[in-house]
Structures are given as C-alpha cells and as structure tokens.
Write a structure and sequence with these properties.
Shape of chain B: flat
Family (chain B): Belongs to the binding-protein-dependent transport system permease family.
CATH topology of the largest domain in chain A: D-Maltodextrin-Binding Protein, domain 2
Order of helices and strands of chain A: HHEEEHEHEHEEEEHEHEHEEEHH
Domain ABC transmembrane type-1 (chain B): 14-199
Radius of gyration of chain B: 22 Å
Helix content of chain A: 40-55%
Distance between the termini of chain B: 43 Å
Protein name (chain B): Amino acid ABC transporter permease
CATH class of the largest domain in chain A: Alpha Beta
Radius of gyration of chain A: 23 Å
Membrane topology (chain B): Multi-pass membrane protein
CATH class of chain B: Mainly Alpha
Largest interface: A-B, 28 and 25 residues
Oligomer: heterodimer
Number of helices of chain A: 10
Number of strands of chain A: 14
Largest sheet of chain B: none
Number of helices of chain B: 9
Shape of chain A: globular
Main location (chain B): membrane
Number of domains of chain A: 2
Structural class of chain A: alpha/beta
CATH superfamily of the largest domain in chain A: Periplasmic binding protein-like II
Structural class of chain B: mainly alpha
Helix content of chain B: over 70%
Number of strands of chain B: 0
Order of helices and strands of chain B: HHHHHHHHH
Distance between the termini of chain A: 79 Å
Strand order of the largest sheet of chain A: 4-1-5-14-6
Strand content of chain B: under 5%
Chain lengths: 288, 237
C-alpha cells in the first residue's frame, strides 16, 4: 500500500506547513500587537497619534443610518452632523478620513478592538460607558422624545403599559424606557432606520429616541407625531469616544470638540442639518 | 462574570430559539412534502406553482424574506408580531429547500415499486403513503435533519426584527455589559448544545424508526474511532 503511505505523508506535510504558517501569523500578530499593546505607558500612548499620522488615515466610526447625524448621500458619500465632526478630526490630524459605518451596539467594541480610532455617533456620556472607553468633553446636549403614529391614543409615559416601544440595541433608550415605564414591552432594533420603520409600519406602538432625530423623522413622515418633546429621562451629553489610556489622542479630540463648539461651527452645522436654529444644544456644555 | 448575571435571559432566549425552530421546521416539512408532490404531479398548474415557489425562495436572501413579512406586510394591513412573522418566514424558506430534498428522495424510489403496488390493486394514495413515501423517507432523513439544523441556525436572523431569541439576547447583553467575547461565547455554547441534542436525538430516532436501523453518526465506521482518525491524520500511528 505505497499510495496510502504517500497520502499519509502528504497529509502530515500539509498539516506541518499549515502549522508553520499559523505559527508565523500568530507571531506576526504578537509583534504588531506589541507596538500598540503597551499603550498603558506614556511613551507608547504618545505613539498612537503618531501611528495615525504615519498611517495617513484616521478611522472614525459614525452611524450612517441615523440621519441627519449620519447618512449616505445619493452619490454614495457619507454626510451629516456627526460626519462633519469626523471630517474635522481628520483635518486636525492632517490625515485622510476613513469612515466606518457602525451602529449603537457596536460603538464600544469598535473602539476596544481598535477598528476605529474614535467614534462620533450620538454617543451619550454615561458612567457605565466611561468604565469601558474614554469620552471627550461634550459637544452637544439633547433630550429624548416620545413619538407615536398620528392615530395613536398614547399621550403619556403611563399609557405605554403593555404597549410595544421601539429602541435600538446598545442605545441608552433601553434604560430610559425601563425607568419611564417598566411595564412597556421593549423592542430593541439593530439600528435607528429599522426602529423608525417599525413605528411607521405599526409593528411598534411608540418610540423613544433622541429629540433631534425624532424632529427629522416627524418632518419627513406626517403620520408620526411627537407626544413628549425632549423631556423623557435625563438630558444626554454627546461626546467623542476614544479607546481607554490614550491621553494624547483624547487631548487631540478635546481640541477638536472645543474648536467645533467655540468657533460656532457646531451651531452652523446644526442649522444646516437639522434645518432649525440651535436653542440650548450648545449652551452650558461645561456644566456636565 | 457580569455576563453570567444575564443567564436567565439567555435561557429564555434559548427557549424562543427552540420553539421558533421547532414550529418553523414542522411547518416547513408539511410545505416541503406538499410542494414535492405538486412538482411530481401530472397537473401542470401545480407543477408551475411548486417550481415558482422553490425558485423564488431559493434564489433570494432569507433576511430580505423576513423583512418583507415583518416590515412589508403591514403596508397591506397584515400586522404579524416578530415571533409569528419569523416562524412564517423561516417555514416558507425551509419549505423550499425541503421540497427539493424530498423530491429527490421520491425520484430515487425505483418506478418498479410504484408499478408493482398498482398491479397489486393499491390505489394511488395508498401506493404513495404505504409504498413510495416510506422508502423515500429513509433516503431523505439525513438531509432533512441537516435542514432542521440549518433552520435552528437561521433563527439568529430574527434578532433583526427585535425578537429576543438567543442571538438577540447576546446582542443586548453585549450592549449592556460590553463584554463582547463572553456575551457571544455563551450564546455559541448554547447553540452548540441545542444543535447537538437535536442531532443525537435524530440519530437515536433514525436507528429505531427505520428497518434496518439508519446510522446517522458514522465516526465508528471501519472500526476507527474519531480519535484514531485524528491521530492518523496528524501523521501518527
């Protein structure tokens, strides 16, 4: 049975080659991981900004299914309020911008796995999230609204008892709905676009979402109405998210945030994308 | 382990996954048998209906089918909750695949069997249920069980319509604890347990239901255990 023996030999050869390739890949990963892995020490963290500059591109996570914060224009380019900030980050670092389309639930993993250097996506600063990632100072403050269809009889948070309320996985609305009315039936969707669709199509009875998003949705769809405007739960402060222990990158992002708000660019972008003048959105941000 | 505090949620997710898979599979099996019979019948309108159904479903993504039923049907006044919409979508989807599996099984039964039964005076219905179908069932049993496993795995798509089955639960737990690796690993292990329970039960049933017994798990073939095979593959004796 010579052929069997040969086959056997070639199989073990193949496994040997496979193992060698795997070994090389793993050691390669370990080596490259070593560069960024030691970000705990000051010396290594300094190199994160330098690394981005050497790479020539900065990867910024933005939620492109939440117009007007993030959207994809008909020509295929990303646009929106949060995209404006992402562009500013790239300009500030002097590198090219690579936008990563993300969603609420993926924001923190995106940073922790290093897929994104920063995340700008209606990212509310909360103590629980601050255990996982670092936030810049807030660039905007906003509230949450309760939205229903025109023909709905829901008028208060109490009316939500036993009714279905849409939210997004990984958004803080899940907790806010729980506090507002624990007897409401939660429907957490993957992204904002599906959440609105569920409400429009009657698959959900109500939706609790960020008030500026809601204002846009109601403007586009006359069958929706806002019942409680911006006053469900506590106010939300949006910040840029950065992986933990990267002080230099965080400083750089803070510079972007302050420049964005103080120069009035934020107010201009707000007027452009939300088609309304900002009222309280950029005031008293330092009070957070 | 913060994730383990959500273990009861995982179990309720597993329960939804299990019931959704069982209901979808049962309905898909009925749809599959009917469609296979349609496609083999001599009546052309039935043949066309069967062919169109199979081709439309097998050539479109399951996710789009789920979205169409959950988000699309309300436009014509049909409001189905996530669970019902999901079960219907997976049943329609699985039915198309099962139809082809069952059709192949029916084709494999020699035509002499049919002719002999008819010659002996059995009617068409009796011939189908007592002669052709039992023989076909033996051929199609392994691929049908495989399709059942595929349906179990496909229920994970239902997380997109806000159904908190196993994957949906893992996604929510992940977003609450941020422990991505553990959150999904727990779901993975639970899926593995579920699918293995199903395939072992199917193997057990196969040995008892068919005569001679049908062997689904073949790792002991030629007297070699799985461990022995792996040793040989690795170049050892």
């Amino acid at each position: 049975m010579r052929s069997t023996k040969n086959n056997r030999r070639s199989v073990s050869l193949a496994i040997g080659v496979g193992a060698a390739v795997l070994g090389l890949t793993l050691s390669g990963c370990a080596a490259s991981g070593g560069d960024s892995g030691g970000s705990g020490s000051a010396g290594a963290s300094d190199s994160v900004v330098q690394q981005i500059k050497d790479r020539g591109t900065v990867n910024v996570g933005v939620c492109l299914t939440s117009p007007p914060y993030g959207l994809i224009k008909s020509d295929g380019d990303p646009d929106g309020f949060d995209v404006t900030i992402a562009k500013k980050i790239a300009d500030d670092l002097g590198v090219k911008l690579n936008i990563i389309d993300t969603n609420n639930a993926s924001r923190i993993p995106e940073l922790q796995t290093g897929k994104a250097d920063a995340v700008v996506c209606t990212f509310t600063i909360t103590p629980e999230r601050q255990k996982e990632v670092d936030f810049t100072d807030p660039y905007m403050v906003t509230g949450r609204s309760l939205v229903v269809r025109k023909d709905s009889d829901i008028k208060t948070l109490e009316d939500l008892t036993g009714r279905t309320v849409a939210s997004t996985k990984g958004g803080i609305s899940v907790q806010i709905i729980n506090e507002a009315n624990p007897k409401a039936k939660q429907q957490p969707y993957d992204n904002y676009a599906q959440e609105v669709l569920a409400l429009q199509q009657g698959q959900a009875d109500a939706m609790i979402e960020e008030s500026n998003l809601v204002a846009q949705a109601v403007k586009k769809d006359p069958n929706l109405k806002v019942v409680i405007d911006g006053d469900v739960g506590d106010k939300s402060y949006f910040g840029i998210g950065v992986k933990k222990d990267r002080p230099e990158l965080l400083d750089e992002m803070n510079k972007v945030v302050h420049d964005f708000v103080d120069s009035g660019e934020a107010a201009d972008a707000f007027t452009k994308y939300f088609e309304a003048d900002p009222t309280f959105q950029f005031q008293n941000l330092d009070k957070k | 382990m913060e994730v383990l505090a959500y273990f009861p949620d995982y179990l309720s997710g597993l329960w939804i996954t299990t019931t959704a898979s069982l209901l979808s599979f049962a309905a898909a099996l009925v749809l599959g048998v009917i469609t296979a019979v349609f496609r083999r019948s001599g009546i052309w309108p039935l043949k066309v209906i069967g062919a169109v159904y199979v081709e439309v479903i097998r050539n479109t993504p399951s996710l789009v089918q789920i979205f169409l039923i959950f988000f699309g049907l309300p436009s014509i006044g049909i409001h189905l909750p996530a669970f019902e919409a999901g079960v219907i979508a997976l049943a329609i989807n699985g039915g198309a695949y099962l139809a082809e599996i069952i059709r192949a099984g029916l084709t494999k039964v020699p035509s002499g069997q049919f002719e002999a039964a008819r010659t002996l005076g059995l009617g068409r219905t009796d011939t189908f249920f007592h002669v052709v179908f039992p023989q076909a069932a033996r051929y199609v049993y392994p691929p049908v069980i495989n399709e059942f496993i595929q349906i179990i795995l496909a229920t994970s798509l239902l997380s997109t319509v806000a159904l908190n089955e196993l994957t949906g639960t893992a996604l929510v737990v992940n977003s609450l604890t941020f422990q991505t690796l553990v959150a999904f690993a727990v779901a993975l292990v639970l899926y593995l347990i579920l699918t293995n329970v199903v395939s072992f039960a199917a193997a057990w049933l196969g040995r008892r239901m068919f005569h001679p017994p049908l062997q689904l798990r073949q790792e002991r073939q030629h007297g070699k255990t799985l461990l022995k095979r792996l040793t040989i593959m690795a170049g050892g004796r």
